[in-house]
Each structure stands twice: as C-alpha cells, then as structure tokens.
C-alpha cells in the first residue's frame, strides 16, 4: 500500500525542521546579544550621562594610546635589552620552528587527514610564490625554503599578536602582594625595527643576486636597473628614478608590514575602549565595543595572513627581478 507525501510548503521545498533549527538558534543568539548591548548602552547613559569625565591620568598626559607600544626593558642579557618585543620574537621563532619540524614528520605521500591536506595547501601556496616569480629551477629550489619559512614566521608573529598576554609592565595588578603585568595584545611587527630587519635581509639577498647575475660588475649592476628602449634624452632622469625606486623597495617592505599591523592594533585598542577612556565617557566605550570585536576578528582572520603573504611574495618578485633581463 503506497503512501502519499504532502507537498512541502511554498518557498521551502526541501527544508526540514532540523535545517531550520540552527538558523533559528543563531538568530535568537544575535538578538540576545544585540538586546544586551542596547540595554547596557541605555544603562551607562542613564546612570553616568553623556558628559565626559576625564580621569587624572588622561588630564595630566600620563596616559597615552601609544604607551602600549613602548618597549620597557625588563632586564638585560649583555648587549640585549629583554622586553616584550624580544619575547614576542622568541615566541614566534620557537612556534615557527616547532610547526616546521612537526610538519616535516607528518608529511606523507597520500593525504591521510585534514592536517595533511592543510600542509599540502600551504606547500602549493608557497611553491607558487617561487615557481611563478623565480625564473630558474635552481633559484626556486634555493629560495623556496626561505620564502616558505618567512611566510610562516610572519604569519605566526602576526597571529600571536592577537592573543592577550601579561606583558604590559607599565600597568600592573596585584595578586597576593605580587605585581603582575597587565594583559594586552602586542605584535613584534608594531615595532619598526622588526620588519626593517626582515626587509634588510631580503634587500641584501636580491642585491647580491643582481650583482652576481651581472658578474660582480658594479657598472653592469647599475645598468641592469635601466629599462630597455628608454629615450636617450631621458636617461639621466630615468636613472635617478630607478635608483630611488630600487632603494625604496627596502622602505616599502618595511612600512607595509609595520604600518598595517600598527594601525590595526591601534584601531582595535581605540574601538575596544581607549577612545572612551580619552573622552571620559563609559557609554562611548560600550557603544564602540562591537566595532572593536569586528575589527579584532577582521585583523586576526584576514590581515595577519594577508600581510605575511604580501611580504613573502614581494620578496620572491624582487629576487626574480634581480636575475631578469629588462
């Protein structure tokens, strides 16, 4: 005996109650969060009012949004001043080394899990950086480990910069008489010295490759910067422009990484509460808190990886350009 199934309601032909339940729960959660935020905003305005009341630290200038980027020396080891910038670099180096060693042990010929697939995706991404920009197989084999390691190192450096750690030694809190540094987010990239050193290493490398390609002849090195077919009358002007643009590669690699991470961290701090502290209005802090969360997610998910990719691929492009004929 056959049964007749009633047709699905119009507009939802294949939807089951199980399919609709997660959407309904997500909607309720968003409405609950939104309602909590709105109630909190009304509470702060009703109790404390619109008018700002700057605290003494802000009024005297003792508090500044740039304080969190200052590197206060904790202790010295010979010529090295150990501070939170050094700590973050060491953490990034240790994590990068651990990741590379772990991936090397887990590599197999056939994908056997999500980790294997992720490793192969990473390999394909980094190998395409060298394969598409370095002209010879020899250079690709030579510089692939560097470009891949550079990408992971910068990515790890950026990502751990969004994990709150007790590194703010200026503002401390006390537990059982012990003065503990406050938690904050900080990235080594926000100190210009870190991206400058990375950029300087790459600048020296592609300058070395260009000089080597031109048989260690400084005149041929300078001539290789000139584009072919340039009008003779414009040669002096073009030469100056090309020399400047060549050395500007060092600045562009440095500033692109440094400025993007610094601006992102400052926006997170401002949207997350610092702007409200500066104007002395708690309701402003509460009002901007959702924007701070959105900015935090945007920076951690997109900008951290994007800036690592841009620095790595530009390094590969500059290395390839060093041995290419213009």
Q: How many β-strands, per DSSP?
A: 4
Helix content: 55-70%
Give the uncertain stretches in residue-range form: none
Overall outline: globular
Main beta sheet: strand number and arrangement?
A: 2 strands, antiparallel
Number of domains: 1
What Rg, in angstroms, do the CA atoms define?
27 Å
Order of helices and strands: HHEEHHHEEHHHH
Strand order of the largest sheet: 1-2
Average of per-residue pLDDT values:
83
Strand content: 5-15%
State the distance separating the first and last CA atoms.
81 Å
Given helix and strand content, the structural type is mainly alpha
Contiguous helical run count: 9
List keywords for this structure.
4 strands; two-stranded antiparallel sheet; mainly alpha; 326 residues; 9 helices; two-stranded antiparallel ribbon; 67% helix; globular
Can you walk through the features of this model?
This protein has 326 residues and is mainly alpha-helical. It has one domain (50-322). Helix content is 67%, strand content 7%. The protein is built from nine helices and four strands; from the N terminus they run ααββαααββαααα. The strands form two sheets. Strands 1-2 form a two-stranded antiparallel ribbon. Strands 3-4 form a two-stranded antiparallel ribbon. It is globular, with a radius of gyration of 27 Å. The mean pLDDT is 83.
